Amino acid sequence: MPRLPVPKVINSLDVSEDKAYEPPYTIRWGVDRESTGTATITMGRTLIPPRGRNHLHYHKNCDTTIYVVRGPINIYWEEDGEIKRREVKAGHFVYFPCGCIHGQENPSKTEPAELIFTYGAMPNKDAAGTTFVDDPRDPLRE
To answer: How far apart are CA 47 and CA 26, in angstroms?
Structure first.
């Protein structure tokens, strides 16, 4: 009888911090090809410092989802050539389709925010084809 696949449990605190991918965020890449051998999903945990915002960006090769653990956070996306903003409270999911320009910001001046994200059908962050389109220090067009 063939052996069935077994689960793997990964403690997010045992995964090294990635502070270079989307500064000023701290990302822990928990599930990807390197940690589990998967070819079909990437999942991570992101801590956003007070007033932290990442670059607006899009993923050429995948849909992206986030779940707001601690918030609220502001999400940004491009629609009809304009940058839109919406506050998303803890406990809510957000879906960004492949190619949708988007980003997040922690509006709090004192408390960190936290989210969990996935890249669908991607084995790791490199395969997602992330393309950054702005500088987070620049004020957003509203």
So the answer is: 5
Is the CB of residue 119 less than 8 Å from the CB of residue 125? yes
State the CB neighbour count (10 A cutoff) for residue 141.
Answer: 11
Distance of CA 104 to the CA centre of its chain: 8
Per the CB < 8 A criterion, the answer to whether 51 and 107 are in contact is: yes
- DSSP string covering 43-111: EEEEEE-TT-BPPPEEESS--EEEEEEE--EEEEEEETTEEEEEEE-TT-EEEE-TT--EEEE---SSS
Q: Which single residue is written with the structure tokens 């940690």?
A: 35
Distance, C-alpha 99 to centroid of its chain: 14
Taking the CA atoms of 31, 36, 41 and 42 in sequence, report the sign of the dihedral they define.
positive
> Tens digits of per-residue pLDDT, 104-140?
999 999 999 999 999 999 999 999 999 999 866 565 5
Tell me the whole-structure pTM to 2 decimals: 0.91
